[in-house]
Amino acid sequence: MTKPKKPSRSFASDNNSGVHPDILQAIEAANSGHVVAYGDDPYTASAVKKFREHFGKDTDVYFVFGGTGANVLGLKAVTEPYHAVICAETAHINVDECGAPEKFTGCKLLAAPTRDGKITVDQIKPFLEGVGFEHHVQPRVISVSQSTEMGTVYSPRELKSLASFAHKHDMLLHVDGARIANAAVSLNVDLREITRDAGVDVLSFGGAKNGMMYGEAVVFFDQKLSKGFKYIRKQGTHLPSKMRFISAQFDALLTNGLWRRNAEHANRMAKVLARELEKIPQISITQKVQSNGVFAIVPRKYISVLQKQYFFYVWNESSSEVRLMTSFDTTEPDIDLFVSLVKKTIK
Asked: For a tag on the chain, would you pick the N or C end, based on fewer CB atoms within 10 A?
């Protein structure tokens, strides 16, 4: 008996998606002739210009290979080993980076419990009780994910509140923006409104989760903070020799609203998926669907059956909560096929 063919698209992660055709075309266009390596090329100059159009002409931007590298190096640039970074307990830097932020910055992560992936000023205040006491690490950075690992989104007002508190207490605000495009679309704002204008100091700008093949950017909104970063990037093994192939992707992503269209589609597909799953009595949606993630309680006995056909992650084993992610290339027929299988499986 022939085994059924697995669907070509899953709901595990937007990292599992392919590459947008416009991005592939940009890579191909850059694959002509020789240019100076390590970023001294016209493709990188053009991409940096695009970033400055979105974020401000005095923005400093540096391209790196991946998201963990962007987070680690961005934090490294603004901390000393005796510092601490405050984040949500669900934060990518706390859960999914194998201790890299602590190893390479020397800083301790101070994680606050959260039900929706977001942290507030009131949760941060207790971590400041040891400020000035030499036996305690000194809080230096508040790091938030936008959108969060739970698919929720910080509003501009929430970010301004965190930034204001951070700056008042000689701290900085870092944003892990692996899905910053999805957050901007959800809020119907531009990229600057939820970063620079909200008081963010350092941003890890994501590309791979929004249609790029690979590549992220570390963005500084105060050039004093990026002093020496080119050496930190090199020492941190994230200086691409053929940088033009990352730069060309960002140039395309930030041209003619491609970043927005990709994120809009992914967000819309998440809402469609949640709407259809909500019709199934045995399933309950656990988080607001504000970006491209759907979190749901699925009866435990059915999860392994569904995973034989569709790869997705169990977010919380004890509560039988799963995470389903949509991408720029998710289609409604993809959702229909998955929901149909869920209905057949859960009876």
From this structure: N
Report d(CA 220, CA 311) in Å as an integer: 36
Q: Which of 207, 234, 253 is the last residue of a domain?
A: 253
Q: Which domain holds residue 341?
A: 258-345
Q: List strands edge to edge, sheet with 216-220.
A: 60-64, 216-220, 202-206, 172-177, 138-145, 83-88, 108-112
CATH number, domain with residue 41? 3.40.640.10
CB proximity list for 8: less than 8 A, separation 6 or greater = none
Overall pTM surpassing 0.90 (yes/no): yes
The arithmetic mean of pLDDT across residues 121-128, rounded, is 97
Is 11 within a domain? no
Note the pLDDT of residue 4.
Answer: 58
Q: What is the DSSP letter of 26?
A: H
State the pLDDT at residue 112.
Answer: 97
Q: How many domains does the chain have?
A: 2
Angle of helix 258-277 relative to helix 244-253, nearest 10 degrees, comes to 70
Q: Do 210 and 284 have their domain in common?
A: no
Domain membership of residue 8 (yes or no) is no
CA 311 – CA 100 distance, rounded (Å): 26
Final residue before a domain boundary, out of 253, 283, 299:
253
124/61 same-domain check: yes
Q: Which tops the pLDDT comparison, 339 or 4? A: 339
Same domain, 306 and 176: no
pLDDT in tens, 96-124: 999 999 999 999 999 999 999 999 999 99
**CB within 8 A of 255, min separation 6: which ones?**
50
Inform me whether the pLDDT recorded for 1 exceeds 70: no
Give every strand in the sheet of 284-285, ordered side by side: 284-285, 293-297, 321-325, 313-316
Secondary structure of 92-141 in the HEC alphabet? HHHHCCCCHHHHHHCCEEEEECCCCCCCCHHHHHHHHCCCCCCCCCEEEE
Distance CA 290, CA 183 (A): 8
Q: Domain containing 329 — which CATH number? A: 3.90.1150.10
Count of other CB atoms within 10 angstroms of residue 82: 13
The reply to whether 2 falls in a domain is no
What value does the mean pLDDT of the chain take?
96
